[in-house]
Amino acid sequence: MRVGVASIGISRFGRRTDVNIFELVEEAVREVWDEGYVSPEDIDYIVFTSTGFTPEFSPAGVYIEHLGLNPIAVHRVEAACASGSAGIYTAYNMVRSGAARNVLVIGLEKMNEFGTPGAVEYLARLGSYFWEVRDYGITFPGYYALFMTRYMHEYGATEEDFCRVAVKNHFYGARNPKAQYQREISLEECMGSRYIARPIKLYDCSPITDGSAAVVISSEDSIRELGVDTPIWIRGIGYSSMPASLTGRADYTSIESARRAAEKAYRAAGIEDPRSDIDVATVHDCFTIAEILAYEDLGFAERGRGVELIREEQTYVGGEVQVNLDGGLKAKGHPVGATGVAMYVEIVKQLRGEAERGRQAVIRRGVGLTHNIGGVGQYAYVSILSR
Amino acid sequence: MRVGVASIGISRFGRRTDVNIFELVEEAVREVWDEGYVSPEDIDYIVFTSTGFTPEFSPAGVYIEHLGLNPIAVHRVEAACASGSAGIYTAYNMVRSGAARNVLVIGLEKMNEFGTPGAVEYLARLGSYFWEVRDYGITFPGYYALFMTRYMHEYGATEEDFCRVAVKNHFYGARNPKAQYQREISLEECMGSRYIARPIKLYDCSPITDGSAAVVISSEDSIRELGVDTPIWIRGIGYSSMPASLTGRADYTSIESARRAAEKAYRAAGIEDPRSDIDVATVHDCFTIAEILAYEDLGFAERGRGVELIREEQTYVGGEVQVNLDGGLKAKGHPVGATGVAMYVEIVKQLRGEAERGRQAVIRRGVGLTHNIGGVGQYAYVSILSR
């Protein structure tokens, strides 16, 4: 039995001082009901994904109450910045097992209330706090600066190459009305931005974001009954893990768990040549270097040659593999526990052909991909979706 | 295809100043390997259950690294004090869907490092912080004091009746070498203990506990191949939810979500008369009143007549429904996010006939039950297990 996405919804991303957290989660869920395919009565179970930037330490029950969704049962799934994908994987298995026909997955994070220093410390605690964060004082820009330094050393890439990723993602953020940063930037602006953790500059970093996203994962039978116009099917989900601490790693130019997750997803979906079989992808560009590593870990480019894809603009609309046409984490924003759900929303929009003008991918094979990393690879999920 | 429990492990519960959190989680997992049925290589996925009494905000990856279990993928499941059951339900669906043959579920909580006032505030934030905890200053003993007061008013129960639950559970705690409180108490001792939130006294409360527990959930094929001596099968899991805030409730003498969860579990397992069909149960006695409500919500007694079961000692070994023979949350202890997993460990031990002398249930039908509540009912899971 096939499992697919029956409906999607997403809030505006940004520094959302105009809404409280209850109103923020409503924005995404209201879009789901407004699509007109699914009603609350159709939902058998709810999976709530969040790392917990909330005053409640067990937010799922409280937000479900506010949304008026009792007595549908709910639990929270957390896998750092891959929480959303882990939640979708949970829903996928519930539907495949026959336990549910329709599972609503809701991702939520309202990070700006913690302030930037507070959010940066909180995020660091999503890493290996005991071994690395507390003793060495490292935070996430520092982690990814190690990757970027090593990559530049090994392969002769330059800071400009990484800024090209920022330029592309801002270009598409400017075309996405839900994005946190809806303006283009130039290579010079990016290169002129201040260092956060050398060689990572401000414009290499994804922002602190408030946002919510929701998807309904359903059985094929249910999708037919609900009359979904363009069903998008989940062809395979791959996952893996690796140590949260960087200390013992041999390789700083790849996220090994992402490579294994991709292999599993490709095997499940029958993808042989990702570069030609995948039309459109969202990848986990928490920092610009992460998008380059993703190109390579996903097999869109050989090791050390990911930078060529961005230099040649092959990941823009019309390119070989169109990547992060929503602006990515970089410009759309990165509400960490909601990001995996937001990635599904984007790929479903792209495959349905519903993305805004100027950022709609050219769809040839009808196949999309999401690549979602938690921490520095201790959680990794890759999904293949198709029309 | 049937799904069952291939292996179990549990740490000693208590104020574990003798171990750090890494050593604590090892205790349960080492018991799993030491049973000799399952090896790390057999595990396809790990579900980690914890509300997050940890220095890391995304603990799953960090503890898996310490346990040497990479690259098996992992995510965390949280549903307040029902996290363990939500995690097992996730594993159950993974196995039923064919996504995994063996899923390791690990529950962990080391609460005493927060100190009692810190832990009590943390626990309160597992409730409806925004609406009730912050504005009215209520904590969990206060919530359950409302239930107890109403129950006494409606049904003429006395404080002694609730202390009888504490006496029973300490009686069995004294026979459980893993329990936090391994000593019997008298009715007079309980009645003489100080009020925490009138009419709830110190001895009506479960303690602040450090502990870990682990189970392996497996397919029937895998259980046969692993050569498990006494497989215990999951016959059904029911779940439901209700508002986290008490303000709008009409009824304070029942946890409605638990009643619905039990109905679903009974339907799935074909249980018609729980009082005669269930041999042994673990119920969520976070406070003594909660055990009485559980008797009624599970159908072991009519509404308002749960106290008769404890007055007549029908929930002791040899009684009609033998309840919390491990000491319950009350005496064994309540490491909140691990409790649902620990309940499975206990029921598997009982159905295998491996519980210690003096606390082994009389097994007639070979059927056991776990009843696990998160918060004040915003999460509720009931499982039926059988030989």
Helix content of chain A: 25-40%
**From the helix content, strand content and strand pairing of chain A, which structural class follows?**
alpha/beta
Find the biggest chain interface: A-B, 59 and 59 residues
Strand order of the largest sheet of chain A: 3-2-4-7-1-8-12-11-9-10
Could you list the spans of chain A in which at least 5 consecutive residues all have pLDDT below 50? none
CATH architecture of the domain at 3-114 and 208-226 in chain A: 3-Layer(aba) Sandwich
What is the terminal-to-terminal distance of chain A? 15 Å
Describe it for me?
Two copies of one chain form a homodimer. In chain A, a hairpin with a 4-residue loop joins strand 11 (367-374) and strand 12 (379-386). Chain A has a domain at 3-114 and 208-226: Thiolase/Chalcone synthase (Peroxisomal Thiolase, Chain A, domain 1). In chain A, helix 3 (83-96) crosses helix 15 (339-352) and helix 7 packs across helix 12 (288-297). The model of chain A has no long low-confidence stretch (mean pLDDT 96). Chain A is α/β, with parallel strands linked by helices and 387 residues long. The radius of gyration of chain A is 19 Å and the shape is globular. Chain A has a ten-stranded mixed sheet, sandwiched between helices. A two-stranded antiparallel sheet of chain A has the order 5-6. The first copy, chain A, is built from 15 helices and twelve strands. Chains A and B meet through helix 2, strand 3, helix 3, helix 5 and helix 10 of A and helix 2, strand 3, helix 3, helix 5 and helix 10 of B.
